[in-house]
Amino acid sequence: MNHTQGKWEAVISNKKDDYIIWAGDEGVFIATTQSVPPAAHETGMYGKQANANLIAAAPEMLQELKAIELGLNHTDSDWAKERLGYVRKIIARAEGE
């Protein structure tokens, strides 16, 4: 599974104080935060911004996990082998496997 290429960026929406995640130079829409009643979501705008930032960072995190996978694959320690299994599961999940 291939994700939308380019740098992902979270920007505040001018309509509802939500965040929109865009990708690439053409501004491909990726996602938006959803407005929820304040009582239902205690973190409010800070939670929306944190969620948007996490989504926007996903491609870079995936790229770094793949680099970590390569490094761990060449290490013989039990700790590294255990981490390698976790890293591979996360990469597979991110790629829809």
Q: State the end-to-end distance.
A: 8 Å
Strand content range: 15-25%
Overall 3D shape = elongated
Computed CA radius of gyration, to the nearest angstrom: 17 Å
Domain tally: 1
What is the N-to-C order of secondary-structure elements (H for helix, E for strand)?
EEEHH
List how many beta strands DSSP finds: 3
Number of helices: 2
Content-based structural category: alpha+beta
Spans with pLDDT under 50 lasting ≥5 residues?
none
Mean pLDDT, as a whole number?
Answer: 84
Strand order of the largest sheet: 1-2-3
Biggest sheet layout:
3 strands, antiparallel
Helix proportion range: 40-55%
Structure at a glance:
With 97 residues, the chain is an alpha+beta fold. It has one domain. Strands 1-2-3 form a 3-stranded antiparallel beta sheet, with helices on one face.
Structural commentary:
The protein has helices at 44-73, 78-94, and strands at 8-12, 19-23, 28-32. It is α+β, with helices and mostly antiparallel strands. The chain has one domain (8-94). It has a three-stranded antiparallel sheet, covered by helices on one side. β2 (19-23) and β3 (28-32) form a beta hairpin. α1 (44-73) crosses α2. The radius of gyration is 17 Å and the shape is elongated. It starts with 7 loop residues before the first strand and ends with a helix.
